[in-house]
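Q: What would this complex look like in 3D?
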Amino acid sequence: MKIDARAWEEVADSIEFVPAAYSSKTRPESAAQEMLRCGPGDIETLVAAGLPFDVQSGVRHFDVNDLYNLGMYSGRSNTQPELAFRMLFRFAGRPVEDLLHPKSWDFQVRLDCAECGGAAPWHFEAPDAVRFGGAVTDVVAPTRVSEGTAEYTATVTTTGVRTPLVSTELRRLTRDYLEAGYRWQMIPVAMQADYQLVHRLGSTSCIAASLLLAERFRAAGHRAEAKRGWFCGVLGGALDLPHASVEVEDDDGVLKTVDIAKAQLAARLSSDTKAFQELCLGSIYNKVIPSTASGNAPFATHECGSRMPVHVRADIRSLR
Amino acid sequence: MSEPMQAIRAFIQGRNSKIGPLTEDLDLIDSRAIDSLAFVEFIFLLEELTGEPIDPEDLNLDDFRTLKALETRFFMKEAAC
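A: Here is my prediction, written as structure tokens for the whole assembly.
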């Protein structure tokens, strides 16, 4: 489908493309056309408008994050990113009581050490639902020493608790962030850790937002830390969705989570999500599995000496 | 073959020109015939074909693994009644 070239130019102008230092161009032009539901002429327009690429074996390749952001902000309604987020956020318009009861998950993670240097111990930042009223049982952790790949499996029970922020200062800092106009974008994890850069570009993402907000909470005198986890209950485990939020000790002494990126995305994607957005500001809900990983730390490491990060693929399915 | 199943085959073949014969038992997930992004489009197609909403949380990937499983899960309800 050919669309108006000016429309694609405007979308490209509105996107902060991933800087070269963080970019990984792995998607061939055919995949770009499929993600954006467009034709070769539209890709030419995007390239002319600044979409970064490199050429591998004579074929242009693009960063998947750039393609995701172009699709998400295209306004076409039929790009794969738009459809994915429409499906993903259906739950946010439903009664929030559904997010407050205990829920169990079959949690499976596969760890792959690229360019593995040989047998060595693994470290995996495990699910940590207990501190928010949940449970982790039937754990099978990676054997202490192995080569190449490992697995972690467990049954994780999450539960929701309505504990909105009570501190007026924490609420003000959260509101100020939401009203600052940062634009949510898909951003490589390594770049998200450089949260000052992300925000200087006018962008935001779950890790970058959580790191900055945690810093502001600490400056206001609260114990706070950005923590990673998984957003689950999405397409039967077909989508791997690492997540991050801020954990902060409120004036009432209770540890709360501020899921700033979800609140922002829900507001952008659907107007009927007010109750869910409020739930994101302090309360715990049952679609997130917290982990022991801090905001910009990897989920797993392998002590073999490989300089490549461990690839972590989670498959999380709802148990009934 | 029913019309909905023809539409499903057309969807998969349209996105996988090199997939080869689309047998009833081919694992559509492991073969990457449907990847995670195309999977969302595929669910919208299924909703259109069945006329019923699908809750993403209730999905069981095994219902999507093969053409046979898809037909059983989504298009054989009337026959089962």
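A: To summarize the key features: Residues 36-50 of chain B form the longest helix (15 residues). Chain B touches chain A through 18 residues (CB under 8 Å).
Q: Very helpful, thank you.
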